[in-house]
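hiii, so i know i said id send this last week but things got crazy w the move. better late than never?? heres the sequnce for the chain we talked about at the cafe, plus the structure i predicted for it. fair warning i was half asleep when i ran it
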Amino acid sequence: MKEVIEEKVYAGRRLDENEALFLYQSADLGWLGELATYVREKKHGKNTYFNRNFHIEPTNICIYTCAFCAFARRPGEEGGWEYTLEEIEDICRGYVGKPVTEVHIVGGVHPKRGVEYYGEMIQRIKRILPHIHVKGFTAVELKVMFARSRMSIEEGLAALREYGLDSIPGGGAEIFHPDVRKQICDTKASTDNWLVIHEAAHKLGIPSNCTMLYGHVENYFHRVHHMNLLRELQDRTGGFNTFIPLKFRHENNELSHIQEASVIEDLKNYAVARLFLDNIPHIKAYWPMIGKPTTQLALSFGVDDVDGTIDDTTKIYSMAGAEEQSPAVTTAELVHLITRAGYRPIERDSVYNILNDFSVVAA
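okay and structure toks below
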């Protein structure tokens, strides 16, 4: 099996699900890193991408109770928040004149807010920051948003695009296999909901990212099943920009008894993703979740993107015990992180157009 996989990788041929399972179960970590680096550098050379972004989390009020979540609060529960549109405008005014290119909007699934509310939010943001790329809303949020506004998926997405939505971030996928989904997020949007919404977005010209939450109750078979569904959708649409493995963190949630994945497991997961997801251009390590040192290591295991500056504006992962409790870095710090790992720091926009080559700037 090892020789067959190696031959396929160097020939640029697609791995099947059994081969991906072998990589998880039996492959040596060093060999995995070697193969993943070959694929990564064939696609991107030494380029490692980041962007200048900030997050808005409009509310953590949520109609769902997911076992892995430390972020959400029920209506009226202590610790909940709901920003007004004026408060969101105030957040955006703090970025006027700064070189940010993207705002990432994800929050709880609010019981009373529909497309019109979030559309007005997008419009207000773009009035203050006209050139900002709005990457917003998981498929889980969108499903409920469209239902509240009595719109079909296509109608809702088209309306949000008219309001100014540019792309979708890809959260809410968790693990697609029904056996796992039943245990960790049984009540929220199904696998089919997630896939159908992203396929519809791609067909309307709205690109998206895709994610997988790993390191909880799933096993390797479930991870491969999940990635295979993403790969099949990408074959149909080509609309995914990047795949983001999201590490389960166990503080302040119903799965706190589960030991978190090791760094070795993190690196293995990035490498297998890079080798199996041959049709998704980029693999992202979300540095606030795994920490800067592991992010640097991941660049040698297939990762070519480290997300962005974040600017201390996200609580979704810090509330669950992520490595970075104050998730903000300067551009200079990200450039240093990438350079110290032996790669070229490239500032990108949200769809991977190159804005600045900081290896040239530094020279």
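btw The chain has one domain: 2-362. thought thatd interest u
miss u guys!!
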